[in-house]
Amino acid sequence: MTRRLAGTWLSSAMLMISAPTAHAQAPATTRTPQTSAPATGDTARHRSPLVAPDFKVPVLARGPGFKLVPLGPDLVQVDYDAYMSSIEHLQKTFSRSTNWPTAGITSADAMKDMQGEAGRFRSRTSFAYGVLTPDAKRERGSVYVSPSPVPGYDAMVRLWVTKDEFDRGFDAELYKWVVAWVRQDWPFAKVAYPGRSIDWATWDALVAQGKARKTAQAH
User: Fold this and answer.
1) Could you tell me if residue 13 is inside a domain?
2) Burial class (CB in 10 A: 0-12, 13-18, 19+), 216
3) Of 45-49, 116-120, 157-161, which range is least confident?
4) Which of 131, 124, 121 is nearest to 62 (CA)?
5) Alpha-carbon span 43 to 57, nearest angstrom
């Protein structure tokens, strides 16, 4: 059975996406993986933009049988339906944690999450996209373009698809398309795809090394 969010959230979604998010709090749960710092709170709000001021960030991209649009409050329901349909699958293949998604995510958590994603998109510090069906009635997955926690990479790109879409082979299809899209439409020379072009063991080691260097420099 599809879980539904409170109607008051949905009816106000389009208004909330344009509202300032400087005071929005991080949701109780996060889709940020273990290997990168959460893009929430004061640190996220004061990050440097990931792209130059004159770069036109894509706000719509179309692929075969899907389209990418920025995540935000207007997508809260389809996004919620997608990840709540695939809790165990996403914990194993995307977050690698039991922290996200969980059965306890509330409508308030979901909306705060979407407000945060929209705010970071506007501030150009990271970019989250919903992968929707052409009619926008269903979310097949998500794509995230964000700073890399490992030096030497211009950006880090992550993505997930629902369990149903994964079983149909869409994960491999979407990954191939995203690599080509990033190469063609984004200004990055070197991009990390953790768990894909770089295996998790190698990526985790690189992240740990980077954290150790920062700690040493701080002292």
Assistant:
1) no
2) exposed
3) 45-49
4) 131
5) 22
DSSP for 135-165? TSS-EEEEEEEE--SSTT-SEEEEEEE-HHH
Domain count, the chain: 1
Residue 180, domain CATH: 3.40.630.30
> How far does CA 131 lie from the centroid of its chain?
11
Reading phi first (left if > 0) and then psi (alpha if -120 to 50, else beta), residue 177 is in: alpha
User: pTM for this one?
Assistant: 0.82
Give the tokens for residue 149: 């926690």
Query: What are 16-25's pLDDT values in tens digits?
Result: 333 333 323 3
Alpha-carbon distance 138 to 194, whole Å? 26
